[in-house]
Amino acid sequence: xxxxxxxxxALFQNADSDAWRxxxxxxEADAPVKQGIDPELYAVVFSTPAGREVLADMYxxxxxxxxxxxxxxxxxxxxxxxxxxxxFDIVHNITLAQEGEGNGQEG
Length: 107
Description:
Layout: H1 6-14, H2 18-30, H3 39-46, H4 49-63, H5 74-98
Helix pairs in contact: 3-5, 4-5
């Protein structure tokens, strides 16, 4: 899902790697709340021009920023990392849908 934003494009390229898939599967396994909708819905929503713009904005505000700031407590870094994880999860779901790995659930 290239959109001209090189950082977001790189994130999608990385999401196509075995290491990324393994990391995201471990993250999903540890999640206290399991996903309730098919990844295809993420792909549909974020493949629109508006969806791509929202995802690019989320990337620039939550991923492409310093998440650990010297002098701030670890809780602030964990909070910012959690915001980035939301973007990672969206990209992961889009990638799963593109690969035909939907979970067959509907919301």
